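Section 5: illustrative case.
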């Protein structure tokens, strides 16, 4: 960065801080649009609405600022897990995982998950988007249309691919810079097994049966480029975008079946803020269904059970919870190799069965050991790398329930991972492929040997899978888009039976996207904003 650029950035920072201090000193009684949650999708919606200067937008975030080294330094992401920027959810003990209660981290603060995640940019598979369009009965979601949106929003820094990539958008995407030798070794090992490599995991590779590539990252000038940084940060000096932190949305306010605002808690005080046009829920796949249920929108019997009056019976709220589940396989380095970038620089997608036409397995290489709390007891090398090997198309489904009508009481999360026997079969194939890769010739000079799981019988490997399983942090699908009785929103992301209320976040996915989920969340934000702009002629 030159001196002039540095001064400009400092000047902007000061103006933005003064502007937001002024706008948030006292909130107005009403705004045109209220966006709840400043995460991956909410950041996109708020920015796109605020592009119209005549529109007053309020973006509400429960967590705090993203001005911290733990957020902005790409190497420090693991330090946020379990800390103040993590909601620290825990799933119920799961009999399919030997009774383990998994931690379910989700981002809390400006940027949401995109401020604590691993920064991998993965756009989903062609078949994901065509499936979304089919479920919604709305061609705006099909692959071709979504590809156009990706081209529009990306500022792509890698090998040109004009058919699929764009370079004028707000989201700076770059291939991991100067990757570790183990990332290159993974590409070579995969090639030796007949898995093709690509320039990027986001072009042609996700239109077919998969492959391997150096990961695309949201890192710019060596700093995390969260979706909040990409979309909202440049607008913080605008008079029509108010971004309020440390403020929790408890319920939606209604007149009849029209959403007319939200009830918030700020500085210990309850307050109602009005929405002239619409309220958008972007609080992520746990908190969006929670706020819906506390507002009387959900399964009738469930709401009655905790004593909440029913406003709209929608049995899909909190159902259909999906997540990628991962099983870490670990190799010990021959000599320590320091992680580079976010410590995850190569991605591989492949199939658990040859007859599949799209990948159902997802592998992100991690350049340090990542055991589960259970497999840690098997002995973890001080220096090593992990194949974070997971199911990209899990069959198991979980469910969220309220424990109480009190909005301050946390959810009951039945993540239910590995409950479907088909997932165990895919998991065994996944770990076997992982071992073939990690024990391949390409790694010989870099590793001393395989630390876990090692060669095990089928039964012992099943036990390993149950002990090793952790979340990939891709919680989704708890207020799905579609047309059946379990659907919560339509193709324009409007909540069925309610006026003036949309959902824009990972909850609306009918099925978890094949890869990491933040890029699809950016698309969901773009789709919501486009529908809002069309509906209100903005
Ligand atoms: C540790 C970790 C690593 C990950 N790695 C990757 C990766 O490398 N690549 C990738 O693509 N994806 C990754 N993900 C997943 C990705 O970040 C999420 O899928 C994505 O952020 C979800 O977007 P969202 O808009 O649905 O919700 P979020 O981004 O979670 O945003 C929701 C926001 O709403 C706020 N909120 C919640 N409740 C309330 C309330 N009641 N009132 C006000 N505000 C509220 C939250 O604090 C949060 O800021 C990772 C996630 C985690 C946690």
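Designed sequence:
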């Amino acid at each position: 960065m030159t001196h002039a650029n540095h001064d400009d950035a400092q000047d902007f920072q000061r103006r933005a801080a003064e502007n937001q201090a002024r706008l948030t000193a006292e909130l107005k009684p009403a705004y045109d649009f209220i966006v709840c949650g400043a995460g991956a999708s909410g950041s996109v919606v708020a920015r796109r609405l605020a592009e119209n200067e005549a529109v007053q937008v309020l973006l509400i975030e429960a967590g705090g600022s993203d001005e911290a080294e733990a957020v902005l330094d790409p190497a420090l992401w693991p330090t946020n897990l379990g800390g103040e920027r993590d909601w620290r959810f825990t799933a119920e003990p799961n009999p399919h995982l030997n009774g383990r209660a998994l931690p379910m981290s989700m981002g809390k603060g400006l940027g949401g998950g995109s401020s604590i995640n691993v920064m991998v940019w993965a756009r989903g598979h062609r078949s994901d988007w065509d499936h979304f369009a089919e479920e919604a009965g709305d061609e705006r979601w099909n692959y071709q249309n979504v590809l156009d949106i990706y081209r529009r929003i990306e500022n792509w820094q890698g090998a040109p691919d004009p058919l699929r990539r764009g370079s004028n958008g707000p989201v700076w995407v770059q291939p991991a810079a100067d990757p570790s030798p183990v990332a290159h070794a993974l590409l070579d090992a995969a090639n030796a097994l007949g898995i093709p490599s690509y320039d990027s995991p986001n072009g042609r590779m996700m239109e077919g049966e998969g492959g391997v590539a150096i990961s695309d990252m949201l890192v710019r000038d060596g700093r995390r480029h969260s979706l909040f940084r990409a979309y909202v940060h440049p607008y913080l000096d605008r008079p029509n975008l108010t971004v309020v932190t440390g403020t929790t949305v408890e319920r939606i306010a209604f007149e009849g079946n029209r959403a007319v605002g939200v009830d918030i808690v700020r500085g210990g005080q309850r307050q109602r803020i009005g929405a002239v046009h619409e309220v958008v829920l972007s609080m992520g796949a746990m908190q969006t269904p929670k706020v819906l249920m506390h507002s009387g929108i959900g399964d009738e019997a469930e709401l009655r059970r905790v004593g909440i009056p029913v406003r709209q019976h929608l049995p899909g709220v909190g159902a259909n919870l999906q997540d990628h589940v991962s099983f870490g396989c670990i190799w010990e380095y021959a000599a320590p190799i320091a992680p580079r970038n976010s410590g995850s620089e190569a991605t591989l997608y492949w199939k658990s069965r040859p007859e599949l036409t799209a990948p159902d397995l997802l592998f992100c290489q991690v350049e340090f050991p990542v055991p589960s709390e259970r497999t840690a007891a098997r002995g973890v090398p001080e220096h090593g790398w992990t194949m974070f090997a997971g199911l990209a198309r899990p069959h198991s489904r979980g469910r969220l329930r309220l424990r109480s009508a009190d909005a301050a009481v946390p959810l009951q999360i039945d993540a239910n991972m590995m409950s479907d026997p088909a997932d165990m079969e895919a998991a065994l194939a996944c770990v076997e492929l992982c071992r073939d890769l990690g024990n391949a010739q390409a790694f010989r000079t870099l590793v001393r040997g395989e630390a876990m799981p090692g060669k095990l019988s089928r039964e012992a490997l099943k036990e390993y899978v149950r002990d090793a399983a952790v979340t990939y942090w891709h919680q989704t699908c708890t207020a799905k888009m579609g047309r059946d009785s379990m659907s919560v929103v339509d193709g324009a992301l409007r909540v069925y039976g309610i006026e003036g209320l949309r959902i824009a976040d990972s909850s609306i996915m009918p099925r978890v996207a094949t890869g990491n989920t933040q890029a699809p969340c950016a698309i969901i934000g773009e789709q919501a904003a486009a529908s809002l702009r069309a509906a209100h002629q903005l």
